[in-house]
Design brief:
alpha/beta, FAD/NAD(P)-binding domain, 8-stranded mixed beta sheet
Length: about 350
């Protein structure tokens, strides 16, 4: 006898990927999403590593490319005083806005027979044994202003990049630039709340002028912002931790294992956690395992699968975000050719 359908709370990358996979393997599911589609989200919009392989399995690669997704092959890093040469990425990354990505994934989920409820906010009950429910609601906020980070994102037009991915490290954070569909460039980054006096929403040109390499400022200043793409999120933090363990709850995506976004591997991990969970949830749905065993198995698999990446990425994040180590960042950027490929591999 089959159990009721799987209820996924959260319709971001991980929730939609899980819903699509469950429908593919014959498991009825329901996604409850607090927002609507399409919409912009703070995101690097840079999918690399195992995530691209999973797009093929989910039937999403061709729709993404048809929409105008861009393959990134090169990277260049900067501080305000130094720059690296243009370097090859270990493997291509796929760049597509979340505005398009989420809408395509939602359409794919519906086409497979999935039930999607929008503007449906569900309570967070992570410590209850609510069987059949998967939480994919994104990372938990950090409410301590002195340790929190501000994330920002907007698109610009008429901007030529020197590499497919540009990373600009600043005394208070970093700015990443990559080309997405329709010849737009995604500008996304993190900055410390403490020490930031300007209103970035209103003074974004001044903010970038202060933080970009001097040779790149004019090009960015002359670009045209897409005002509808501007979005911010506060209360971000990335403590040195392993995947989250919670009694009785299945947590996927950033809620279960959140990697610092500067690695460019967050969306891939979201998809990977969804794919790892799908077969176990199928066993529960068909009655061959109980909910407690399903929760335990998914948690342990997540720990094993993501542990190395988090151990490597979190200290790297704190090093690159420390205002006291800006001189070291400058040295690292200048010597990037010697270590960028091993670092890329360690976070994937």
């Amino acid at each position: 006898m089959k159990c009721r359908k799987i209820h996924i709370i959260g319709g971001g990358v991980s929730g939609l990927a899980l819903g699509i996979k469950l429908q593919q393997i014959g498991v009825d599911s329901l996604i409850s999403e607090a927002g609507t589609y399409p919409r912009h989200r703070v995101c690097g919009e840079f999918l690399s590593g195992k995530g691209i392989q999973l797009l093929h399995l989910l039937g999403l690669y061709d729709p993404f490319m048809t929409e105008g997704a861009v393959l990134a092959h090169t990277i260049k890093c900067y501080t305000s005083e130094s720059e690296s040469p243009i370097l090859p990425l270990n493997e291509p990354a796929l760049c597509l806005s979340r505005y398009s990505m989420d809408e395509i994934m939602a359409s794919r989920y519906r086409a497979l027979g999935g039930e999607l409820k929008l503007k449906q906010r569900c309570p967070m009950r992570l410590h209850t044994r609510e069987t059949g429910t998967v939480f994919a609601t994104g990372r938990l906020p950090n409410l301590k202003r002195e340790t929190a980070l501000l994330g920002y994102k907007w698109h610009v037009e008429n901007l030529t990049l020197e590499a497919d991915l540009e990373m600009h490290f600043t005394p208070l954070g970093y700015v990443g630039l990559c080309r997405v569909e329709h010849n737009k460039v995604n500008i996304c980054g993190l900055t410390k709340v403490k020490g930031t006096s300007m209103n970035i929403k209103k003074e974004w040109r001044h903010f970038l002028n202060q933080n970009l390499h001097h040779r790149r400022r004019e090009a960015v200043m002359n670009s045209e912002i897409v005002t509808t793409s501007v979005c911010f999120t506060s209360g971000l933090s990335y403590p040195i931790t392993t995947p989250r363990i919670a009694d009785g709850a299945i947590q996927i995506g950033d809620l279960g294992a959140c990697i610092p976004p500067l690695t460019g591997n967050g969306m891939s991990m979201a998809m990977e956690s969804a794919m790892m969970s799908a077969q176990i949830l199928k066993s529960y749905h068909e009655g061959s395992t109980n909910w407690q065993n399903a929760v335990f198995t998914i948690q342990r698999q997540s720990q094993k699968h993501f542990r190395r990446r988090l151990i490597c990425a979190n200290p790297m994040h704190h090093l690159l975000m420390s205002s006291r180590l800006h001189g070291l960042r400058r040295w690292l950027v200048e010597h990037l050719p010697y270590y960028h490929q091993p670092l890329f591999s360690l976070t994937r």
